[in-house]
Amino acid sequence: MEGKLIFISGGARSGKSSFAERHAISLAKLEKKALYYLATSKVTDGEMHERMKRHQHDRDGSDYPWRTIESSTNLWKVANKLQPNSIVLLDCLTVWLTNEMFRDGLMDDVWMDEIKQKELIDKMMKSVAAILGHVDTLLIVSNEVLNENVYDRSLVQCYSKLLGELHQKLVEQADTAYLVEAGIPLLMKGEQLCVES
What we know:
Elements: E1 4-10, H1 16-31, E2 35-39, H2 46-60, E3 66-70, E4 87-91, H3 93-101, H4 114-132, E5 137-143, H5 155-173, E6 176-181, E7 184-189
Parallel strand pairs: 1-5, 1-6, 2-3, 2-4, 4-5
Antiparallel strand pairs: 6-7
């Protein structure tokens, strides 16, 4: 079994996470499925703590029950914790990529190696495949990050490159892809799978 993949991206504070949560709830209700929130964030400062609290409060106030699983790296390990045929919202890819890049004190110069970059993308895509092999629908939220200085050989450029490659691979595999701008979801690929609640 391979689940459906929905990819949702947008700029900072674009409304992408709120849209993804509403969309996940509507799918879970429509199909009467278990609903999971796969949180990749770690509390790093007061602002992050407040944002996480706000999102948790929003989910707790939902009229459909969420089950939250926190995992910042190696998301393939989560697949067996998910009820088969469930709806899973992974929020977010950009934080997950950051966590993978800086796990275990890995140094910046490691990521200048193209082989290491490929290994990381392969590892993350295998995690996505492991989850998709276990669930009905996986929604992945990500940020649009722009860094247009093609001569920049910094870690920021490397991160932008890796994120761009992940976006391309995920959208290619996705059944549906949205770009959220100013709170408005724009369908970029596929068909609307359900009506928002």
